[in-house]
Amino acid sequence: MSAEQAEQLWRGGVATAVGSWPGTDPREAAATIVGELGELAHLVELPGRGTGSDMIGRTAALLVDMPFDVSTRAYRLTARPSAVARRARDFLRTDLDALEEAWEGTGSAGSGRTVKVQAVGPLTLAAQLELTSGHRVLTDSGAVRDLSASLAEGITRHAAEVASRLGAKVVVQLDEPSSSAVLEGSLPGTSVLDSVRAVPAPEALFVLDAVITGVPGPVLVHTCADRPALEFLRGSAAAAIGFDLATIRTADLDDIGELLEVGKQLALGVIPVQSPATPVTWRELAEPAVRLVDRLGVGRRTLADRVLITPACGLANTPLTWARRALSLATETARVFSEDPESLTFE
Asked: Which Gene Ontology BP terms does the record give (predicted)?
């Protein structure tokens, strides 16, 4: 896919959400997401339903020829399929059925609109998924390669099914909340004597890019880490990088500027995942993004051309009333950015 085609799918001035949503009703969730996020809706995740519906279980359900189950600590690769794996795949099918129903209900079927699907990226998946021995997959480089190949194939099949059922263009989001810990070597092992080594950046980048380049269409890599690995992600093949804007420090500004310099889009998490103590307006939430591009000196048209607006992270643990308000605020902020960001003023 050319850079121009990627930009058409990831054009700025658009609101979307990270993935997870509160509650357990897939039809209600799909209807809300499709209705509120008219330009970039997504296949919703509902972790509130329990095992198999969280981000790791959802992604494990996409793996090809890699059965899994649960252990006392996490999900674990196994020799044969399990009831947990069947449950996770059933959740995925139910959610896709609900999205298709909502998509058709808004007249979007066959419209060629863009929809987003999410999966955990290979670094986080290898960090959180266990081998049969109980060690993290990340501790076995051969297993990491196998996992990455299986993940890329599974996402490709999944995206093709979504595109076929909805008559839509599909973009992929890879969630990498553990990427910083993988690079820093801060993940705990099975005991105090069993450490998990830090993965060198070139090795980690090879693993990540194997999936990014192995799936169709442009990819957004999103991280909710307190210290997002922006310099590392700049070197990836991702078309867009997403992060919580509230985590950004002055030292990160050069990295953000370089992300833009190399042609990447930004998905800025400017909407808090929990309701603020006092009511907020889109203007208050938009201000940090405006001040960011002003400090970078890249021009406010960047907000219209290169920036997507999102909540800071997933909304699964958010009250439903605020989750809906968060989407509304994201949409309103994105609309203002797309129309006339130059006119915005702040005291």
From this structure: methionine biosynthetic process
